[in-house]
Each structure stands twice: as structure tokens, then as C-alpha cells.
Design goal:
98 residues; alpha+beta; Alpha-Beta Plaits; six-stranded antiparallel sheet; 2 helices; 41% strand; globular
Length: 98
């Protein structure tokens, strides 16, 4: 059965089922970062979101982490880290999501 515009949530991934037979699996990845991003880095992040497959970028300054929600059919964790580094973010290790 095909549902139109339905979002199914399971842990840290979302299965988006759109009208027709197009499906996308959104995953979250969280990285620790070193230096806090400045204005230029945040502008670069904003344009990074225009890259097809990046849905959301959230910073947690207290924990010094950045969470990226992305389309797993288009990108993987390494590609997301590369995009963050290209934007000037001091990306460190990825964190395991519970």
C-alpha cells in the first residue's frame, strides 16, 4: 500500500513516502566539533543546506555537537563530514546515537 505524504519515524531515521513510488530515507548523524562556528561558517552551512539531500543542520553549543539530517540514498556520513569541513566547521569524531 502506498501512502501519500506520510512520514514514518523509527529511531533516528525517517522514511518519507511521497506520492508515486519515490522514497527517501532520512538519517541523522552527530559530530563533535572543536572551534565554535562563526558568522562565515554559519553562512556556508546555510548554503550547504541547498545541496540536495541535506535536510536540517542543528548546532548544540553546550555539547559542541552538530546534528545533520540527510537523505541516505544520496549521501553517507563521510560525505556529510566533508560538506561540514568545506563549510569551515572543525568536525571531529562522529557520536553514536542512542
Amino acid at each position: 500500500m502506498l501512502y501519500s505524504g506520510c512520514v514514518l519515524r523509527s529511531g533516528t531515521s525517517n522514511l518519507i513516502i511521497q506520492k508515486g513510488f519515490h522514497t527517501m530515507t532520512y538519517l541523522d548523524v552527530v559530530f563533535r566539533y572543536g572551534a565554535a562556528p562563526g558568522e562565515n561558517e554559519l553562512r556556508a552551512i546555510d548554503s550547504m543546506r541547498e545541496v540536495y539531500g541535506v535536510r536540517r543542520v542543528l548546532f548544540n553549543q553546550k555539547e559542541q555537537t552538530v546534528r545533520v539530517e540527510f537523505d541516505a540514498s544520496r549521501l553517507n556520513q563521510d560525505a556529510v563530514a566533508r560538506l561540514l569541513r568545506q563549510a569551515g566547521i572543525d568536525v571531529r569524531e562522529p557520536l553514536a546515537l542512542a
